[in-house]
Amino acid sequence: MTFVLLLPRDNARAIFKLFSPALGVPLAERSYGDDCRFYTPERDSHFANFKDAFYDVHTVAHLVGWFGKMLVLRDFWMAWALSILFEWCEFSLEHILPNFIECWWDHALLDLFGCNFFGMLAGYAIIIIYDMPRFNWVKNEKTNKFVLFDNSRRFWLVVLYIAFMLAVDVNNFFLKSVLW
Known about the structure:
Elements: H1 2-5, H2 9-19, H3 48-54, H4 57-73, H5 76-92, H6 104-129, E1 139-140, E2 145-146, H7 152-179
Antiparallel strand pairs: 1-2
Helix pairs in contact: 4-5, 4-6, 5-6, 5-7
């Protein structure tokens, strides 16, 4: 990706076209924030907007993504903080990436307390079932003590890791937007 970032945009798009002819053409963007009504009695389903958002490919992507992140992070509190912060990133970058425009219930119910949370729970269940070692980024589960603030070095390393993870996640959407 570093090599691709050094290229002019059209050349970078052409490189991706080598891998698949379907790439390198503008993507059809779906708007997730046009009609934010939760209750739609005039449509075929009273919750048609919610149903349309729920049966979207991004629902599966959220579930699988947070399942995998939990297996990498192995700390529920760290994953939960990242989930909240990424939703904040989506909200604060809506003016740059139209794909981030979502209804309040999409941010809260589908993403944060829905797919992200249940993906994390599924990942955590696998960690417990297979007795995988857990990391104590934020809170020590055995002592039930928050260890994030034990010393400044630990605090700043966790903050740096969070910033790195958020940058990687947001970067994926920027690359998708720029390179199609």
